[in-house]
Amino acid sequence: MTVMRAACSVFYACVLGALVTASGPVSTVQTSPGAGAIVVLETGKGTIEIETYPEEAPKTVARILELVKKNFYNGQRFHRAEPKFVVQIGDPQTRNMQRREWWGRAGFGKPIGVSEITKKRRHLRGAVAMAYAGQDPRAADSQFYITLRNAPELDAKYTVFGRVINGMAVADRIERGDVLKKASVKE
Q1: Whether pLDDT at 3 is above 90
Q2: How are beta strands 80-82 and 86-89 bridged, if at all?
């Protein structure tokens, strides 16, 4: 009986190993201490996963999660894509190709109303931060960007509320007009 049990254990281990290998590598994402929910962006070029920082930017993270859960970002296009600098999304007008010259000028329509800029979170490659028009960071609404390089010139000017933890190569390939198929939250 013991030999049979050992043979069964080996058999199931082999079957399990084959299933894992067939389904692809298992992803182990390392999040930062204090990180909150993960936002998943599914694009035509692949998936980007973003950890959020609710301790440093609670109102900003709450707004982004609210908009993601309302499907606000689904179907929008990246309206800004500057190689080796940033890619940006969050303007609902981008769903309409005929309004292309107006892309980047609209948002959800309700500013967050606070500036949660902190020295703890810097604009390193993969930082995710809120964009805003004008001079007041409290005017940030729904548009956010991902930095494609270290950008210290943006520090102390914009609220960094997250960081890409998986999919930076996808972010690097984003071009203006690429569609965000679906945004979701992984708690």
Answers
A1: no
A2: antiparallel
CA atoms within 13 A on the CB side of 30: 0
Closest by Cα among 126, 113, 180, 128 to 158: 128
How does pLDDT run across 8-30, given as a tens digit for each residue? Answer: 444 334 433 443 334 334 345 57
At 148, list the tokens: 């494609």
What is this structure's pTM? 0.83
Backbone angles phi, psi at 117, to 5 degrees: -75, 130
Which one is predicted more confidently, 99 or 88?
Answer: 88
Beta strand 46-52 with 80-82 is unpaired
Cβ proximity of 91 and 141 under 8 Å: no
- Cα distance between residue 101 and residue 187, in whole Å: 36
CATH number of 31-186: 2.40.100.10
- Residue 64, pLDDT > 90, answer yes
Q: DSSP secondary-structure letter at 126?
A: T
Q: In what order do the strands lie in the sheet with 180-186?
A: 80-82, 86-89, 144-147, 127-130, 160-166, 46-52, 38-43, 180-186
Q: How far apart are CA 131 and CA 85, in angstroms?
A: 14
Task: Identify the burial level of 150 via C-beta atoms within 10 angstroms of its C-beta, where 0-12 means exposed, 13-18 middle and 19 or more buried.
Answer: middle
pLDDT at 60 over 70: yes
